[in-house]
Amino acid sequence: MRFPPAIIQLRRAQLILMLVVLVPTILMTMLGIVLLAVGSSSVTVFAGVLVLTFCATAVTGYVLVSIFVGKGASLARVQNDFFSSVSHELRTPLTSIRLLLEPLAEGKLTEDERQQVAKLLSREVGRLDSLLVRTLDLSRIQSGRHAFTMAPVPIGELVAEAIAAFDAVTATRPTPITTALEPGLIVHGDRETLVRAVVNLLVNAWKYSGDDKQIQVVARGAGRKVELEVTDNGIGIDPAERTELFDGFVRGKAAVDQGAPGVGLGLAIVRAIVRAHKGKVEVMSEPGRGSTFRLVLPRGLPATAAAPGLAVMEGR
Question: CA distances (Å), 258 to each of 147, 233, 234, in order?
Fold first, then answer.
């Protein structure tokens, strides 16, 4: 596996830091211990304490700098993986468009063939546009550049809007959604993005379930939080894949083997939205026995008791 130059440079910085700071500090620590052990005068003892204090400060600085350098290396690796994934996903529709344009440019197609090629081009352009829009949305939310209008949002209205949007997306194969919502629940957040998060979970449940699709939405209060769950009877998720599924452009092996459509951005967007609301996402699943995705969000006050919604910038 080849690492990008940024990661290699950061790893070199860690090695240099260890050689320049840590090794001399260890030697000085040994000296300080010897001075304290054999010192017979107050001056020797004071020198030993001073050396050990300096060494403790140097070790603390080394640990802090190592943490920052390590985070920098991790960030560089994530960025590299992200751009590699984006490039890979963009290459597929662009290749299809290029292959479709070649016979069209040669002018050797019949009228029916040209119409078919035009439909295929329209589909690939739409796919490319959707990919770019979702990637940019994810980037804005993760970086804190997305404007959220925070206000009290009744869970009943939130779920109703999400189901209506879900029905529009899955109009070719309508699927009823069972709901069990504790009355009076309110979350504090941005209605539009929260609806989008729930829609993403519903669409995932629909895509990764078989012919007998059973999808349920449950909401309950949990102290100062509200738990909103989407459960399906689909293919399930391997325990080893659960954490990685929330990274961009990552899909489970079972989903790939099944040939379900998607590029792996839905759950990444869900997590980014929930984190921006100071909440968290939990997943419970077993292969072949369905999945439950739980959104844990801050409980809100009724609109009459809360301040008016304001457009704010919130991120991780």
Answer: 37, 15, 11
CB contact set of 79 (below 8 Å; sequence gap of 6+): none
pLDDT per residue as tens digits for the range 59-75:
777 676 666 666 655 55
How is residue 301 annotated by DSSP? Answer: -
Question: Is 302 within 8 Å of 224 (Cβ atoms)?
Answer: no
Contact 213, 206 (CB under 8 A): yes
Task: Answer whether 184's CB lies under 8 Å from 264's CB.
Answer: no
Q: Starting at the earlier edge strand, list the strands of the sheet with 280-285.
A: 177-181, 215-222, 225-232, 291-298, 280-285
pTM for the model: 0.63
> What Cα–Cα distance (Å) separates residue 183 from each residue in 155, 198, 264, 277, 312?
8, 18, 33, 22, 28
SS3 state at 285: strand
Structure tokens at 45: 């003892």
Is residue 238 within 8 Å of 256, Cβ to Cβ?
no
DSSP-assigned letter for residue 278: T
Using DSSP's 3-state secondary structure scheme, residue 183 falls into coil
- The angle at the Cα of 197, spanning 194 to 200, to the nearest 5 degrees, equals 150
Which are the contacts of 307, defined by CB distance < 8 A and separation ≥ 6? none
- What are the backbone angles phi and psi of residue 100, rounded to the nearest 5°? -75, -30
SS3 state at 174: coil
Categorize the per-residue pLDDT at 238 as very low, low, confident or very high, splitting at 50, 70 and 90.
Answer: confident
